[in-house]
Amino acid sequence: MYKITATELLDKSDVKQIPAIFHDNFLEFLVKVNQFRMLFGKPMSPTSFFRSQSKQIAIYKNKAKKKEFPFTDGVFDASKVPMGSVHMKAAACDFADPHGEIGKWIMAHKNILPKLGLYVENPTKTKGWFHIQSIAPASGNHIFNP
Ligand SMILES: [Zn+2]
Q1: How far is the CA of 93 from the centre of ligand 1 (A)?
Q2: Span from the CA of 74 to the centroid of ligand 1 (angstroms)
Q3: Which of 38-47, 54-63, 64-73, 80-89 tops mean pLDDT?
Q4: In angstroms, what is the span from residue 87 Cα to ligand 1's centroid?
Q5: What is the pTM of this model?
Q6: Least confident of 16-30, 38-52, 71-85, 120-134
């Protein structure tokens, strides 16, 4: 059974080395996501892992251009960019899920999330991708709304 490797995650990050303060998060995430993947039993393709502050701002600037994110008086406002994303702590990854297969599977196997210490965005709200993280959201819910 193929594992999700550190290299694979780094390839889907905007840095090639995770900052030292997030190393422990990175290693813990890698172990947990592979436990998840073993239970799921099928390949999983990462699409977005670690995001630096500048990458997060760039993503939201792009959303603003497409009018998916509010401007203030027509000007992009970096202070409105959510900087609490767990992607920025090397503890969250998005996986391609074009047919919602991972999402449907987890909804039928919710009990594994507290066992593994993992948290997912409600897959009914993330069409085409699947977000999983190893740090609890503010709500503490294992399935939470993005
Ligand atoms: Zn995500």
Answers
A1: 6
A2: 27
A3: 38-47
A4: 6
A5: 0.89
A6: 71-85
Residue 90 Cα to ligand 1 midpoint, Å, equals: 11
* Residue 89 burial (10 A CB sphere; 0-12, 13-18, 19+): buried
The pLDDT of residue 94: 97
Please tell me the distance from the alpha carbon of residue 97 to that of residue 88, in angstroms, as a whole number.
21
Distance 57 CA to ligand 1 centre (A): 15
- How far, in Å, from the CA of 72 to the mean position of ligand 1? 25
Q: Which amino acid is at 8?
A: E
139 CB neighbour count, 10 Å cutoff: 10
Q: How confident is the model at residue 132 (pLDDT cuts 50, 70, 90)?
A: very high
48 C-alpha to ligand 1 centroid (Å): 7
Q: Do 51 and 87 touch, CB atoms closer than 8 A?
A: yes
Instruction: Compute CA 13 distance to the chain's CA centroid, rounded to the nearest angstrom.
Output: 11
Which domains, and CATH codes, for the chain? 6-144 (3.30.1380.10)
